[in-house]
Amino acid sequence: MLSVIVLLIGILLMGAGLYDRTVFWRKKLCFE
Fold first, then answer.
1. Neighbours of 2 (CB within 10 A)
2. Rounded to whole angstroms, what are the CA distances from 22 to 2, 6, 8, 14?
3. 5 to 1, 14, 16: CA distances (angstroms)
4. What is each CA distance from 27 to 2, 15, 23, in whole angstroms?
5. Is the pLDDT reported for residue 1 higher than 90?
6. Alpha-carbon span 5 to 17, nearest angstrom
7. What is the pLDDT of residue 10?
8. Predicted model pTM
9. What is the pLDDT of residues 9-28, one digit of tens each?
10. Rg (CA), the chain
């Protein structure tokens, strides 16, 4: 059970990281 929770947290963190990166690149492209 604990491993499942850790796995879900890892997926959420990865998703948040990808989302932040996408927003960052979008802003960078818009400004140039």
1. 6
2. 30, 24, 21, 12
3. 7, 14, 16
4. 38, 18, 6
5. no
6. 18
7. 94
8. 0.54
9. 999 999 988 989 898 888 88
10. 14
Q: How far is the CA of 20 from the CAs of 2, 5, 8, 28, 31, in angstroms? A: 27, 22, 18, 12, 17
Q: How far apart are CA 22 and CA 2, in angstroms?
A: 30
CA-closest candidate to residue 18, choices 7, 30, 26, 8: 26
Residue the block writes with tokens 């960078």: 28
Q: In sequence order, what are the residues at sequence separation of 6 or more whose Cβ sits closer than 8 angstroms to the Cβ of residue 12? A: none
